[in-house]
Amino acid sequence: MADSRLTGPVRVVGVGLLGSSVGLGLRARGIDVILADASPTHLGIAVDYGAGRAPAEGDEPQLVVVCVPPDVTADVIAAELEAYPEAIVTDVASVKLRVLDELTARGADVSRYIGSHPLAGRERGGPMSGRADLFAGRPWVVAAHDGISYRRGGVVDDLILDLGATLVEMTPEQHDAAVALISHVPQVVSSLMARRLVDGAPSALNLAGQGVRDVTRVAASDPQLWVQILGANAAPVRDILTAYRDDLDRFIDALGDVDAPGARRRIAEELAGGNSGVGRLPGKHGVDRRFTPVVVMVDDRPGQLAQLFQDVGDIGVNIEDFRMEHSPGAPVGLAELAIVPEAVESLIEELSQRGWRIAG
């Protein structure tokens, strides 16, 4: 069992995906985790899955982690601060400034509160979706404010490091502006683009490939949750969407008369601006490293994708990124593997010798 920076107990309020994952991760380090949830059924499931135990009389948590929907986050934090006067309280809501302002306005003891936000998730929610390693290597923002000392807030740093996440320090204002750009506005754009598909002819939708699926992937998110998030971070989101509308207007004007002087140049510059923006993203999709795609044809039958991964591993090549394109009813799919350039030639040769068909 790994050593923990926290001494515990840690109380987790809300046992959805994030709450149950916090519990599982801390239990793996031997921390006493106390679970609470408005739903007795969810609480029972989380306890049965090993994310922690039910509350008991006399519990005195070192730390409380609030993992509830954004529209009740401030209410729950205030109640936890009052119920456990010796505990530090944090939350994982995706908007930070509004929560802090609400707590300050109602006179809550914000000297024991510091907001945080893990940039991690899965497509599925609920206590059964929790994973002990959900936060490993993921950014986790701590939104410090002047009302809490560094010494008191250090227990939240310990939580983040114990769960294997990467600690990022921001002010609440900086955090909300950042997530508006990298999360909230992309959600809106994706949803509005997906809405155009509602009136699409079936013959057109049957042609859909990976491009439209990439653009609309997050459009499947819960609308009720996003109404809460966008309502809590409306101003930064509106500012970015206004600038985005200006970009669209310029693009639409250029398309209105593509033969007008400068129209094609304007279109090219807008598209090139997109190249520059993507290039600024850190990590595997950004400028840190460049990878070469290898596209392999995979038969549509059980075990083929697993066999491909096994063969690539046996060859000694790491898959840096992966995506799959498969049209309904097609006998084959296209597996695109992102590989370091120096390994591409040998990988293609080895895979071909093993009977794999390389596309392109």
TrEMBL record:
Coiled coil: none
Molecular function GO terms recorded: NAD+ binding; prephenate dehydrogenase (NAD+) activity; prephenate dehydrogenase (NADP+) activity
Record-annotated Prephenate/arogenate dehydrogenase domain positions: 8-285
Example GO BP: tyrosine biosynthetic process
Record has Methyltransferase as a keyword: no
Homology family: Belongs to the prephenate/arogenate dehydrogenase family.
UniProt protein name: Prephenate dehydrogenase
Annotated organism of origin: Agromyces rhizosphaerae
